[in-house]
C-alpha cells in the first residue's frame, strides 16, 4: 500500500506526518499516564531510524526485496536479546528462527535483482527494528505501556522531520493522505501499543517469531484485496513460516506426579 504512493512523496516527510498524526490520536484517545520521556526517547530513536531507512529503501528497491530484508530483523532479535537482555533462545526457538529464513526467502523471492543502495538502507532498517523489539521488552517491563507510547511517536516524527529536507519534494494526493492516516492509526498506534502491552509478557524471541506471521497475512490480504497470484514456492514459504510460528509457541509441559 505504501509502495504505491511513495513515488510522489518525500519519504521522510511522509513518516514525520504519519507519526505526528499518530501522536495526536494517542493524546485524544489514550489519555497517556505520566510520560516516560527518557525511555520513550530511546525507543523513538531506534523506531525513527527504522522507519526512515525502511521508507527510503522502499523507494529505491523493489517491494519484494524490501519485505524480505526488513523481515530479517526476526533472526537478529535473538542476537540483540542475548546482548541486551542476556536471554538465550530455547532449542525450539532456534529451530523456528532457522526455518523462518528460507520461508521468508521463498515468500518474497528477492533474487531477481542485484544488491542496491535501497537494499543497504533496508538492512539498516532491519537492525534498527531488531533493537527496537528487544528494547520494548526491556523497557516496557518497568512502565505502563501508555507512558512509553507518546514519547517514542514524537521522537520518531522529529527524526523524520529533521531528515525531510534531504528527501525531495512531495505531491500529496487523496490516496496518499488516506494511506498516511490509515497507517498512523492501524499500523502505528495500535500495533506499537500492543507491542508495549504484551511483549513484556512473552519476551523478545517469542514476539519476533510471532511477527513471522506478518508477511503471511500480508500476502493473503494482497490475494484477497488486489487479486495477486501466489506461486507454488510462495505457498511453500508460507507453509514453512506458519510451521515455524507454531513451533515457536509450543511450550514444554511438566508432568506432575
TrEMBL record:
<keyword id="KW-0472">Membrane</keyword>
<keyword id="KW-1133">Transmembrane helix</keyword>
<feature type="transmembrane region" description="Helical">
    <location>
        <begin position="66"/>
        <end position="84"/>
    </location>
</feature>
<dbReference type="Pfam" id="PF00892">
    <property type="entry name" value="EamA"/>
</dbReference>
<feature type="transmembrane region" description="Helical">
    <location>
        <begin position="172"/>
        <end position="194"/>
    </location>
</feature>
<feature type="domain" description="EamA">
    <location>
        <begin position="117"/>
        <end position="248"/>
    </location>
</feature>
<keyword id="KW-0812">Transmembrane</keyword>
<feature type="transmembrane region" description="Helical">
    <location>
        <begin position="120"/>
        <end position="141"/>
    </location>
</feature>
<feature type="transmembrane region" description="Helical">
    <location>
        <begin position="42"/>
        <end position="60"/>
    </location>
</feature>
<dbReference type="InterPro" id="IPR051258">
    <property type="entry name" value="Diverse_Substrate_Transporter"/>
</dbReference>
<dbReference type="InterPro" id="IPR037185">
    <property type="entry name" value="EmrE-like"/>
</dbReference>
<feature type="transmembrane region" description="Helical">
    <location>
        <begin position="148"/>
        <end position="166"/>
    </location>
</feature>
<protein>
    <submittedName>
        <fullName>DMT family transporter</fullName>
    </submittedName>
</protein>
<feature type="transmembrane region" description="Helical">
    <location>
        <begin position="12"/>
        <end position="30"/>
    </location>
</feature>
<feature type="transmembrane region" description="Helical">
    <location>
        <begin position="232"/>
        <end position="250"/>
    </location>
</feature>
<keyword id="KW-1003">Cell membrane</keyword>
<dbReference type="InterPro" id="IPR000620">
    <property type="entry name" value="EamA_dom"/>
</dbReference>
<dbReference type="GO" id="GO:0005886">
    <property type="term" value="C:plasma membrane"/>
</dbReference>
<feature type="transmembrane region" description="Helical">
    <location>
        <begin position="206"/>
        <end position="226"/>
    </location>
</feature>
<feature type="domain" description="EamA">
    <location>
        <begin position="2"/>
        <end position="108"/>
    </location>
</feature>
